[in-house]
Amino acid sequence: MSLFLFLILVAVVLGIIGFVGHGLVYLLVIGAVLLVLDLVFAAVRLRRGGRRHRVVR
Fold first, then answer.
1. Which terminal CB of the chain, N or C, has fewer other CB atoms within 10 Å?
2. In sequence order, which residues have a C-beta less than 8 Å from that of residue 16 and are 6 or more positions away?
3. Contact 46, 33 (CB under 8 A)
4. Nearest CA to 4 among 36, 42, 40?
5. CA 44 to the chain's CA centroid
6. Averaged over 35-39, what is the pLDDT?
């Protein structure tokens, strides 16, 4: 979970720097792509999380 939050933070920071900086639009694009990939990763993890079954002893 901490990796997810860290990647969200990095994506937001890159997006802000890319938006504010002149000629740094590529950072905005990298931040947006990183945000989308992170959200997809989180969705896949949440979907797979329910399939684990406990062993009853």
1. C
2. 31
3. no
4. 42
5. 12
6. 86
* Residue 53 φ/ψ, nearest 5 degrees: -115, 140
The band of 14, judged by pLDDT with boundaries at 50, 70 and 90, is confident
Q: Determine the pLDDT at residue 44.
A: 85
Please state, in angstroms and rounded to a whole number, the distance separating the CA atoms of residues 8 and 10: 5
Structure tokens at 49: 């999380």
pLDDT at residue 50 tops 70? no
CA dist list (Å): 35 to 6, 50, 51: 11, 24, 26
32 contact partners, CB below 8 Å, separation of at least 6: 11, 15
